[in-house]
Amino acid sequence: MDGDYMTDPFNDGINPDKLPLGDPNPKFTGGWTNNVTWKNFNVGVLFTFLFDRDVLNLYQSDLFENGAATNSTSGFAQYATPDFSKINIWRQPGDRADYPAYPLGSWRYYTVAGQTFFMDKGDYFRVKSVSLSYSLPNRLVSGWGMKSIRMYGIVDNLMMFQRSKRLPDAEAVNYYGEYEGNGYPIPRKFTFGVELQF
After folding, report:
1. Are strands 54-57 and 124-135 parallel, antiparallel or unpaired?
2. What is the per-residue pLDDT across 15-64, written as a single tens digit (0 to 9) for each?
3. pLDDT value at 158 more than 70
4. How high is the pLDDT of residue 102?
5. 92-96 contacts at long range (C-beta below 8 A, 24 or more positions apart)
6. Does the pTM exceed 0.85?
7. Which of 26, 60, 97, 144 is 20 to 30 A from 169 in CA distance terms?
8. Structural contact between residues 79 and 65, judged by C-beta atoms closer than 8 angstroms
9. CB of 28 closer than 8 Å to CB of 125
C-alpha cells in the first residue's frame, strides 16, 4: 500500500501496509430474564447474547508466534504451543494447510496478529443463570416460630453457544475487541443455600 512493493507489517510502527477491517462494536447485545412461580416453587432463568461483532484473536496468534518471538526459547515460557497433531499445519511442499509453517526462529512472521486470518466472529448466546427455589408451607413454618424457610440452588454460566470454534470464550473479550487469553476463564458455578426468616 505504501508503494515499496514489500508487505511490511512493522514499518516504523505506523503499519502503512495495513487496512482497517472488522468492527469490534456489536450490532445487537442484550439479555432476557424470566421467573416462573408455581405453588411453592420458583424458577428463574437469565440469558445474555451478543451478535455481529468481530474479535481479533491475539491468543491464537501468540500460540504460533512463540517460536519466532525472540529467536530463542523465552517465548515458550510465556505462551503455550498448539498440539500440531490436531491442526492442519504446513509441513512439506504440496501440503494444503490451514496454518502456515511453524516459524521456529525464522523471523518470517507468518502468524503476526494484525491480519484477517486471526479475526473471528464474536457472536454468542449464554445461559447466564438458572435458579430453582422451594418455600416450605406457611402452616409448617409458623409452627416452628418462623416467617419463612426457602431452599434454593443456582447455576451460573450453565452453557454457551458461540459462532467461533477458535475462541475459548467469546464473552471474555476486551473493549478493543481483542481476545488475549489473559485472566481467569468465566467459571461454571453452583450455589446451594437455605434462607431463614424469623
Report:
1. unpaired
2. 667 778 889 999 999 999 999 999 999 999 999 999 999 999 988 888 77
3. yes
4. 75
5. none
6. no
7. 97
8. yes
9. no
* DSSP three-state, residue 198: coil
Task: Tell me the mean pLDDT in the region 120-125.
Answer: 96
Closest CA to 79 of 182, 2, 148: 182
Question: In which residue are the cell numbers 488475549 written?
Answer: 180
DSSP 137: P
- Using alpha carbons, select from 17, 46, 55 the residue that is nearest to residue 173: 55
Closest C-alpha to 160, from 196, 125, 115: 125
In this structure, which amino acid lies at residue 11? N
Burial of 108 (0-12, 13-18, 19+ CB in 10 A): exposed
Asked if 54 contacts 22 with a C-beta cutoff of 8 angstroms, the reply is yes
Q: State which amino acid sits at residue 31.
A: G
Q: Which residue carries 490436531 as its cell?
A: 86
